[in-house]
Amino acid sequence: MEKRYIRETLVVKTSHVFPEATNNHNTLFGGQLMRDIDDLASIAAMRLCRSEVVTASTDSVDFLHPITPDDSVCLEAYVSYTGKSSMEVFVKVIAEHLLSGERKIAATAFLTFVALDENKRPLEVPQIIPETEEEKNLHNTAPARAEKRREHRQASKELAGLLTTKRPWE
Known about the structure:
Blueprint (H helix, E strand, L loop, with lengths): L2 E3 L5 E6 L13 H20 L2 E12 L7 E12 L3 E12 L5 E14 L10 E3 L3 H30 L8
Parallel strand pairs: 1-7
Antiparallel strand pairs: 2-4, 3-6, 4-5, 5-6
């Protein structure tokens, strides 16, 4: 089985927070941040498998501190765990006050991607090797998150079975 270091999947993006990207609270739109999270996470996933990927789930996005126009926002994404054809991608969002230099973890996110072959079928992915303490911690705690994802997915399927596809006026 092919193996790669987590660092080989790392994607980093830092940008200003401009007024047009803020809401009525003068903080970064959550939807804007979620779009950037999915974008970077998909690049990290593709760096691991060097194939097309599809987002299987956004497991969580936890907003911890507001991000304001006084901040830069830095996203770091990397594959934190792999299964057979799926991979968990962790995204860390750091807000840095540009005048004081103070840095805070503003958000964290876990997403799951599936690698696809040229026929859009699941493709086996390389296993990953963690090196830093952060990587090892996330890698070691991933099986518990994977189990929660399986349970949540099953509950979502059960809920979907109870829902209607009728138009609201029918």
